[in-house]
Amino acid sequence: MNFHSQPISFRKYSLIVSYAFFGIVIIIWGMEFYFQTLSGDLTRVGRFSERDFGWNTPQPAIPIGQFKNYSLNEADIVVVGDSFSAERVWQTKFISEGLKISTLTWRELKMEEALPSNLGEALRAEGFKGRYIIIESVERVLQRRAKSLTKIPRPMTIGISTPPSPPMTQRERVSLNKPNGGAWGFKTLYNTLKLSLNLPEKYLKSEWVQPIKFNGCQLFSHRLCDYALFIESDFKKETFTSIANILAINSNLLSVGIQPIWAIVPDKATVYLGYGALNQYPYQNIWQLFSQYPELITPDLGELFIQKSRIIKDFYMPNDTHLSTNGFLYLGDIMLSELRKIQTNQTKPM
User: 3-state DSSP helix/strand/coil percent for the chain, to nearest 5?
Assistant: First the structure.
């Protein structure tokens, strides 16, 4: 009896390899279809499913003509901010009122790690003739930015800012035009399985994204609303101790006739979990601290956002660190109201 197996023919070998390849392609395609198109930073980086964490509340449309950005020498107001300002969504509230806004980012100014002590003089030297500036920073990085001061070189080196795309009004469900890839799909499948097993939160972290068990179905529209996604750095923010530097910048701006308004955007974790929840350092309520100095005009976005997030579903995007369009427009309403309040007070007779 001959126990020697017959060698596989090249044709059979080719068929086996082809079927295996197409099988893998079908599995990856199926995951792309099931997990849905990526649209959020937290789902993209953490590799969580858009099917589970994608928003479902329709968002308002904003006319494309309101996403304007004026040069410094023709602007009424300068905005200096981070990613919460870069897309110019909340600024559309000012544009719709006929105000001219020039938006600069900390990255364009090369000021992500230190704030400029000579901001007022630098803006005037570049031709800014307006009377107001809105300085925006997300809460978690304000201490990192403000703990040291530097000077803006003259002339200012400002990059060319590209027109932003209007935010989506409806989330795209399925598209294979920009596939996520097999590696993303298998990692997402792994994370989805972990969530289904109701594991402790420390086992759910993926990259720098932390899911938190959360009774959020009244606050968010995503399918898996008994969990909320947060950026890990929300829980690692340094205690704010740099009020002296803030006061120095504020004084510099006032000395050249520019009135600052400070817009400190609360972290998503602050709004939904509470002030300092799970933070590894002692927590400083920045808005309460700023309120102790009458020269600092700072709306209490922490308290206002907490209140509004209980009324507007998806005030922050469930799949992202940023506000929804509704949230950004509310921020625009607050900042416009703050400006009008200042203008009213300045015109009152002494």
Answer: 40, 10, 45
